[in-house]
Amino acid sequence: MRANIKLFFISVIVTFFSSCSDDIINKEPLDQLAPETLFQTEGGFRSALDGVYGLMKQDFHGYSLGIYTIPEAIGDDLLGSTNSKDFSFDNSSLSIYPLAYNSSTGGIEGFWKVSYQAIYNVNTIIKYARKSTLTNKNAFLGEALGIRALLHYNLYRFYSPAYNADKKALSVSYRFETDKLLDIKPRNTTAEVIQFILADLKEAEALANNTVNSYRISKTAIYALSARVSHETADYKNAIAYSNLALADTRYKLDNTLVALQKEWDKDDSGEIIFRIRFENSEMGQTAAIFAIPVLSSYPYSVATDLINLYDKTKDFRFTVYFKNHPTIKDNYFPKKQAGTRTTNAAAFDPGNIDIKLIRVPELYLILAESYLQENNSASALINLNKLRNARGIGDYSGADLSNEILNERRRELAFEGFRFTDLKRLGLGFKRADGSGLSANANRFALPIPQTEIDRSGITQNPGY
């Protein structure tokens, strides 16, 4: 019976790509439209941009699950199940978690493909926005540039070695509006990719506005992404400046009660979310089955004990929101954080969808805390750390190791959102799991393999170690 249910959901997901009735998902691919006609109106630009967000919803070995499951499966916050009855919809527990991924691994190949499809479409929008005479063309151009920067940034962090480790190492190919998708193009270096991302964001911040909601890239989201990239590349002064610019937008603020935090992760209702990929109640899919599938009693992952031990189980609001007692492993927990119930229909064996929350307010306070400390301003670092700690119910930090506490707080707050992988990578750390598996510091496998289909098509160089 369980096998039949699993096969049923796989067929539903495949059908989802071609038959979903949602307006965004049903956008005709941009390369099948006549751009000269589409971009004559502001409605055409809006439709095309929403179509790009629709592409970012694609999954079964595509973008929307991969943005979380790929990095989280390569880290030490999760432990893979040894129960053969447990399964993950994206197969990450079998193919990526064991750290045996290669250039043909489905999720790794799918994320690359969907990302570059979205980049191709957004570049078409940028090309026509640059020469448009429409009143609001700058706002569309700024939004499109912000999307292009975000898509390339996520490709960079998956398929490249850390910027701080080797600025001359090969990264991904940064594609601009004058590029053709199938052209043979060498890979850019990590330094070049970061430079192009920041240049796109700089241009975008001058053009974008905040009339859009959190389902679209706003000026505030662009500031926040600039802070993230600056922080990751150790440009702490700009990380501080951009974080403060983003936090100046009073639409977004920290949740400070257990009920509010529960609503954020269970019902997608929160003022903390600056940018998300939105899933409507009517949409079919499986995004609420990322790390656990409670409606099918399948738990492909449990939570690492050292992560659990970082929390004050009594005071920290996050503990009961992020974790739940594992039904089959005594004294253990499964990751509940992403298993929202907003659209879940247990009677129909449907785990439902949750919004993919890509930029949230808490990250900005953590960026400020670490960046101020690196700039020798421990007082400001502590202030910003405590703002987040107090919002989560655990009070001010009074210990002696502020640097370590900031990193611990990043791990607590941002668990299961893909940040642990990035932190291990940027800080040159390795990890070892309780089952004995892991990666050494600066291991080649922190840079995922370039998909074999891309190498066969364009002849670009594979990453070392594959």
Automatic annotation (TrEMBL):
<dbReference type="InterPro" id="IPR011990">
    <property type="entry name" value="TPR-like_helical_dom_sf"/>
</dbReference>
<feature type="domain" description="RagB/SusD">
    <location>
        <begin position="351"/>
        <end position="466"/>
    </location>
</feature>
<dbReference type="Pfam" id="PF14322">
    <property type="entry name" value="SusD-like_3"/>
</dbReference>
<keyword id="KW-0732">Signal</keyword>
<dbReference type="InterPro" id="IPR033985">
    <property type="entry name" value="SusD-like_N"/>
</dbReference>
<dbReference type="Pfam" id="PF07980">
    <property type="entry name" value="SusD_RagB"/>
</dbReference>
<protein>
    <submittedName>
        <fullName>SusD-like protein P38</fullName>
    </submittedName>
</protein>
<dbReference type="InterPro" id="IPR012944">
    <property type="entry name" value="SusD_RagB_dom"/>
</dbReference>
<feature type="domain" description="SusD-like N-terminal">
    <location>
        <begin position="94"/>
        <end position="229"/>
    </location>
</feature>
<keyword id="KW-0472">Membrane</keyword>
<comment type="similarity">
    <text>Belongs to the SusD family.</text>
</comment>
<keyword id="KW-0998">Cell outer membrane</keyword>
